[in-house]
Design brief:
The structure is a single chain. The protein has 209 residues and is an alpha+beta fold. It has a domain of 118 residues. The radius of gyration is 33 Å and the shape is elongated. It starts with a helix and ends with a helix. The structure holds heme C (4 copies). The site of one heme C has 18 residues, from α3.
Length: 209
Amino acid sequence: MATVRNKNNACVWVMVLAFSGLAVSFVFDGWGEERETHQVVVIAPDFYSKLPVRQPRLEATLVLGDYTYRCNTCHQHLKPSQVQKSAVSAHPEILLNHGVNNYCATCHDREDREKLVDINGEKVSFAQSQVTCLQCHGPIYRDWEKGVHGRMNDYWDKRRGEVRKLTCVACHDPHDPAFKPMVPSPAPQRLGRLDGSVTPIAKEFDDDH
Ligand code: HEC
Ligand code: HEC
Ligand code: HEC
Ligand code: HEC
């Protein structure tokens, strides 16, 4: 019985010595090659920003210099134009580039400039501007309603918070609606080494593709 215990003790001591030796060698970095790692490329915050590409105008106001006017501050004194216009000198920043949809009054109410219009000529508030788009973009509007076109923000799980749906004009300028090109985000980092050689895993991937 005693001899067995002695044998165990010896075994424990050998292991303690071996592991201590290993620990010391790890601390002093005894062997192995130095492994250089890639510099992590910091991605510009724009790429993961939740902000829409444009700030939609939700109120019927016009900013001129330092002042913000309600549309009807001027328009209550102006007779609505009897001819259809595609550009007006009073609003030089508005250049319609919307295909054959080239008249202000397809979207803006003729009499009340603080309102937009739907397909029946009913007034629509600036905050509900997607209803004006519905006049001509039915299928896309339907997709947008279902969440297929456009983007949802915040929560999918309604118990945790609200879902916020971006409106059409958060992505499309109503006057020049083509979605502007965006710079793509940088490619994912490869499992490569600094000297350009690749690791076995990355090589296997390259060979397979
Ligand atoms: C500082 C004064 C001013 C303000 C504020 C203003 N407008 Fe105008 N707007 C004009 C003038 C002047 C015209 C040209 C009228 C004309 O040619 O008969 C015009 C023309 C227009 C037209 C072209 C149709 C037409 O009847 O000629 C539209 C549409 C329009 N404005 C929309 C708006 C909207 C929407 C707002 C608010 C977001 C706004 N305007 C605010 C001065 C103003
Ligand atoms: C396709 C529909 C559509 C047409 C056509 C259109 N507008 Fe607009 N307009 C909108 C909507 C929607 C808004 C408010 C939403 C926004 O700007 O984000 C707006 C906003 C405006 C504003 C105030 C916002 C700003 O940009 O300062 C003015 C002024 C204006 N429109 C004038 C005009 C004039 C003038 C024409 C004709 C030359 C015209 N619009 C044609 C839909 C339209
Ligand atoms: C009166 C009909 C009409 C209304 C209202 C209208 N559109 Fe359009 N839209 C068109 C037509 C026509 C085209 C096709 C233009 C072309 O390809 O020449 C178009 C094209 C577009 C395009 C594609 C542009 C491109 O070149 O890729 C977008 C995006 C768009 N509209 C967004 C909107 C939004 C947002 C609204 C509401 C603010 C709106 N439209 C309201 C008629 C309309
Ligand atoms: C979150 C942003 C976003 C929202 C919100 C959004 N769109 Fe778009 N839309 C896009 C993008 C991105 C494209 C694709 C542009 C491209 O392919 O060049 C597009 C394309 C389009 C086109 C052109 C489709 C084609 O087949 O060429 C139309 C028309 C359009 N959108 C209308 C709308 C309307 C109407 C709404 C609201 C009911 C809306 N969009 C809401 C981002 C958006």
